[in-house]
Amino acid sequence: MILSIILLIIGFFLLAKGADLLVDGACAVARKLNIPEIVIGLTIVACGTSAPEAAVSISSVLQGAAGVGVGNILGSNVANILLILGVSALITNLYVKKNTVFCEIPFVVFISVLLMFIGWQYGAVYCGSASILFGLFLLFLMYLFVVAKKQQDENKEIKNLSSIKMILFVFFGVAALVLGAKLTVDSAVNIAHALNISERVIGLTIIAFGTSLPELVTCVVAAVKKHSDIVVGNIIGSNIFNILFVLGVAGLISPIPFEHAFLIDAAWGIIAAVLLWVFFINDRKLTRGEGLFLLVLYSVYIVSLIK
In this structure, which of 25, 55, 86, 307 has its CB flanked by the most CB atoms within 10 Å? Predict the structure, then answer.
């Protein structure tokens, strides 16, 4: 039991450090290739900080612990909006552009509803559903490409790394993520069994929070520097990546059972996304008061899992 807890902590550290290296390396590559900041926020940073969720979820499916993987995705998406954006909004008011309010956030609502429908209708994410999710991910990338063509480069705060450092950052980032994912899944499942706790609850709480640490750190730093687009873009991009890419790829590898209890968690994800949309739709701003409300709602969500 104690050894599992120690390995779990080590796993979280490797996940966070691996994501940090991967993001720095990927962003440096983006700067070198002159990729606009909006694409960095919604793709490279979002995918990089979501890499722990991807590693844990895909690894858990391969190891036959799909409950951890699905719980991790659903729990992370709820934490991304209610916890991370809540904390970020307490630091500074968050402002976004029109396309985020009228395109990207509604898209998150749509795919959240789609995922809940798949789970309710089929009880699992089979190859057909996974293909639809992955296809939507490719369409989202096409949308970003079109948006990027209209944007000017704003890469000002990205580390300027040499070519060798960029390669090393990406390589060791991926290596740390893979090892951290294995340690995290193995340790969490062992702890769950020892405490007679379901894989669903472990995935929705401990692992979801642990794998969301890269998003939390990234958003807090960006909020302090008043880069609202990076904060919101990271979270929106992460949620899209989690549902469409992670579950899409995992479902193509092997069917992912979707427990009936997960429908409640999927509903929480929809509520969080819709609430975020409502807060932004009038003045394109998330205030400190609204951020506090998101945090209170997240507390209610956690309590509902524990009781």
Answer: 55
